[in-house]
Write a structure and sequence with these properties.
Largest sheet: 2 strands, antiparallel
Keywords: Amino-acid transport, Cell membrane, Membrane, Transmembrane, Transmembrane helix, Transport
Strand content: under 5%
Membrane topology: Multi-pass membrane protein
Organism: Paenibacillus sonchi
Strand order of the largest sheet: 1-2
Main location: membrane
Low-confidence stretches: 455-460
Protein name: Amino acid permease
Order of helices and strands: HHHHHHHHEEHHHHHHHHHHHH
Shape: globular
Length: 460
């Protein structure tokens, strides 16, 4: 019986918008308020630095994915170049990353719906989870379509913000907070108003803003023409980062003095309200709602595919590799959704601290995943020079840039250690990795024992 395979139903436009959706999410719409409070206008440079680093990670991932036709995702790459232990830890860590992120997002859906309807927040959260599960169970094309429209809403909102910002700067529009001008970026305490320490402390939230960009790699196995779609999506990442992140932040800081923005509310809501758009709060609430639903949708997709791959590689229970008639890993999708729903309940019990803990743990785990991609690329260059020579999508400036980006990631982790808000999560996260290493050793011993018991010597 031929093994079941995922269906390549994602078109180029889906991959392009998945790439955009992966780089624009709650980290920008919600987290940017906290980041701006920490760094002031210097947050622009933090987004640039992390964005450039993420681009080089994606170029390394793109070259690796296209170097071998059989790769399903970067867990397969990790197994090839770092061994099954690294693949096990990276796969389960990536699953954990998205579970943690999606937990916060599904709770956020409930909170945002309460803006219009006076109902318990768990009701819209559960309804959203059920709708997304139903659509994801049908075909992967449904996931692609959902992300296409979710991402389009985000893009239109940011384009509108940037366009409004440019117009207001040109005409010198006056708001209740003052005149709209580019000089607002540096006239309220300078570009580094909180010094270098504030600038450095903002990196955790900036890293969280970029989580999900590697979804292009997870979707590779279900992309109709990966040789064309993946390079195209990855090469456009720098322009998107420059435009959507840096452009949006410059527009926000030109309309508002950075001192007027607070972590308690979205800077986008504040800005649209300030320029006199009467239904601004409702519009942005809808955008943030779709952004949270989009992140949850991405979480359900990625966690189910990671479980599917782990199961195929005998690193998770075998039933997670089962596909339904639509070629969707339904068992993996159902268990991920179940864990998400339990996590949503837990997040509700500690609403004041849940978001900060989740974003920190998520950022740490994503740094691990990105670091593994860079290390695998170094191993690829060293051990497979013949493949690297034939590559039509070579990652630039390697191996030097790999070491530079790895050093940056290590520095960000050290910064988190010195920050009071991120230190507890950073110190707790190693327990997850210890657990995975123990589980891997137990799983390996069990498989070895099964193989020995199943061995029958040849009869003479």
């Amino acid at each position: 019986m031929a093994p079941q395979e995922l269906k390549r139903d994602l078109e180029n436009r889906h991959v392009q918008l998945i790439a955009i959706g992966g780089t624009i999410g709650t980290g920008l719409f919600l987290g940017s308020g906290k980041a701006i409070q920490l760094a002031g206008p210097s947050i622009i440079f933090a987004y640039l630095i992390v964005g450039i680093a993420v681009f080089f990670v994606m170029r390394a991932l793109g070259e690796l994915l296209l170097s071998k036709a059989g790769y399903q995702s970067f867990t397969d790459i990790a197994e090839d170049y770092l061994g099954p232990r690294a693949a096990f830890v990276t796969g389960w860590t990536y699953w954990f990353c998205w579970i943690m992120t999606a937990m916060a997002d599904i709770i956020a859906v409930g909170v945002y719906v309460q803006y219009w309807f006076d109902i318990p927040q768990w009701v819209p959260a559960v309804i959203c989870l059920i709708i997304l599960l139903g659509l994801n169970l049908l075909t992967v094309k449904n996931f692609g379509e959902l992300e296409f429209w979710f991402a389009l809403i985000k893009v239109v909102t940011i384009l509108a913000l940037i366009a409004i910002g440019v117009i207001l700067v040109v005409i010198g529009f006056k708001t209740d907070a003052g005149t709209v001008a580019l000089s607002n970026i540096w006239t309220h305490g300078g570009v580094f108003p909180n010094g270098i320490s504030g600038f450095l402390l903002s990196f955790q939230m900036v890293v969280f803003a970029f989580v999900g960009v590697e979804l292009v790699g997870v979707s590779a196995a279900e992309t109709a023409n990966p040789e064309k779609s993946i390079p195209s999506a990855i090469n456009k990442i720098p322009l998107r980062i420059l435009f959507f992140y840096v452009g949006a932040i410059i527009a926000l800081l030109s309309i508002n003095a950075w001192t007027e923005l607070t972590p308690a509310e979205s800077p986008f809501v504040k800005t649209f309200s300030l320029v006199g758009i009467p239904i601004a709060a409702g519009i942005i609430n809808f955008v943030v709602l779709t952004s949270a639903a989009s992140a949850c949708n991405s979480g359900m997709f990625s966690t189910s595919r990671i479980l599917y791959n782990l199961s195929r590689n005998e690193q998770a229970p075998a039933h997670f590799a089962k596909l339904n008639k639509n070629h969707v890993p339904s068992n993996a999708l159902l268990i991920s959704t179940l864990v998400l729903s339990v996590g949503a309940l837990l997040s509700k019990l500690i609403p004041e601290t849940a978001f900060g803990i989740v974003t920190t743990i998520s950022a740490i785990c994503f740094i691990w995943v990105w670091g593994v991609i860079l290390i695998c690329h170094l191993r690829y260059k060293k051990t497979k020079p013949e493949l690297q020579a034939k590559s039509k999508f070579k990652a630039p400036l390697t191996p030097f840039i790999n070491y530079v980006v790895l050093a940056l990631f290590a520095a960000i982790l050290i910064i988190m250690l010195f920050a009071e808000e991120t230190r507890p999560a950073l110190l707790l996260t190693p327990l997850w990795f210890i657990l995975l290493f123990v589980l891997y050793s137990m799983n390996r011993r069990k498989r070895e024992k099964t193989n020995i018991q199943g061995f029958k010597p040849m009869e003479r």
